[in-house]
Amino acid sequence: MSQILPVVHIFSKVLMLFAFAFLLPLGVSLALDDGAQLAYDEAILITFCSGIVLWLLSRRGKRELQTRDGFLLVVLIWAVLPVYSAIPLMVYLPDLSFNEAYFEAVSGLTATGATVLTGLDNLPPSINIWRTQMHWIGGMGVIVLVVAVLPMLGVGGRQLFKAETPTPMKDSKLTPRMAETAKGLWQVYALITLVCMGALWAGGMNWIDAVVHGFSVMGLGGLSSHDASMAYFDSLLLEIIVMVFALIAGISFSTHFMAFRMRNLFAYRHDPEIPLFFGVLAVSVIGLAIYLHYKGFYLHFPEALRYAAFNTVSLATTLGFSTTDYNVWPYFAPLWMLFLSSFIASSGSTGGGIKMLRAMLLYKQLYREFVKLIHPHAEIHTKIGQQAVPNKIIYAVLAFLFVYVASIVVLSFVLSASGLDVFTAFTAVVAMVNNTGPGLGQVGPATTYAVLNDFQTWVCSFAMLLGRLEFFTLLVVLTPVFWRK
Q: Is residue 62 part of a domain?
């Protein structure tokens, strides 16, 4: 118990800080008098008081975090914060069960965008803002925000940042200090978000919808204030704006940070993920547009291109918005889009999946093995750009891929055994693990995850956390060796 007290001590401060996140929706609720004020009053009170109690119980355990503590704290934050995030939903929607509210909150904080709610158009604006504000917080990562703040509380943050950072190049630093890195990333993130909201408002949305969808787009989440998602607006201009900012959010924010810092586009030219990011998306959009036009789903090619472009970019970047029920398209098209969500987003972006950098390393390693078969004595190095990648990183990526595939297979079997048809179970798990949102079958873009029973809801909640924490961070805490002294 004494070993986890330092983690609980830091978590208590995180919890008290998180209470302030409810102030934005509370302010909106008070300004619009939408009837949801009590939900935020209770959320702030319960969250802040819980933090104080934990701080009092653990104040004697203060010390610098070790690597193991960092992993435990990351898991604790992502698993427990949704409990407090769900409070406004449960208070305002008393018929919503805790299982469903926790699922909705996990979906929000992990920027997945799956929902069990209907009647979104009739919800108070502040509730919809809170649902998508969770995307914005979780999109960049609660931990990065904490790293920027914890030094002021007397706690270093490098161990946390290392546990949270998903890229193979974990030890690279944008600025000499981790707190400066975190603050720089959040400043760029906030600035682009404001520009996105302004563009959506100028494109025809009211300010509530602009805030809601701005949070969703930059977090690559996908929750909306309308049941019909982006189809509600039926606006080509708004679709283009959403696509542009989804693509921006799908690029590494480290690259954005360096571009802002140097005040030029030099950083984008040297990001090895960007050419494949745009190249694969462009080929996929054009190919799917031709395919849908050929199959007769859209009589005119420009119309096919419009729907193929928006829904492909949205699903591939793990945003999850839709402008049509692509569940009725020939299965090749939505399956390809769901496949793209597995790897399109860049490392360091707000997207999910295995990330483009890992996909590049896997491809280069495969090519390396083919060459070695022909020239067994050749010395061949795997490179990203001009940088040779150490074998230990390649082995780690291969292990990551194994865990990724194994998790999808196992969880698909679990959902299938619980009563879901195989197709729905598989696509739901892929959507959850990639933090994409809509799957196919019974959980397609025109339906919600309310069709799941309680057990299936918890499996999907676990899958979202597993994907957001990039597997190892969560799974290592669940192993017996982690708890041995």
A: no
Nearest in space to 459 (alpha carbons), one of 130, 114, 222: 114
214's torsion region: left (phi>0), alpha (psi -120 to 50) or beta? Answer: alpha
379: tokens are 């010395």
Question: Could you tell me the residue range of the domain that residue 427 belongs to?
Answer: 393-483
Under 8 Å CB-to-CB from 288, ≥6 apart: which residues?
308, 312, 333, 336, 337
Global pTM value:
0.91
Q: Are strands 387-388 and 383-384 parallel, antiparallel or unpaired?
A: antiparallel
The closest of 202, 484, 386 to 476, measured between CA atoms, is 484
Angle at the Cα of 37 (from 119 to 454), degrees rounded to 5?
Answer: 45
Give domain status of residue 464, yes or no.
Answer: yes
Q: Is residue 476 part of a domain?
A: yes
- Phi, psi for residue 384 in degrees, rounded to 5: -115, 110
Write out pLDDT tens, residues 234-270. Answer: 999 999 999 999 999 999 888 898 898 888 888 898 8
Residue 250 lies in a domain: no
Q: How many CB atoms within 10 Å of residue 23?
A: 11
Of 241, 270, 275, 243, nearest to 254 by C-alpha is 270
φ, ψ at 36 (rounded to 5°): -110, 10
Domain count, the chain: 1
SS3 388: strand
How far apart are alpha carbons 245 and 203 in whole angstroms?
13
Distance separating alpha carbons of residues 175 and 187, to the nearest angstrom:
14
Task: Tell me phi and psi for residue 218, to 5 degrees.
Answer: -70, -30
> Under a CB-based contact definition with an 8 Å cutoff, are residues 76 and 18 in contact?
no
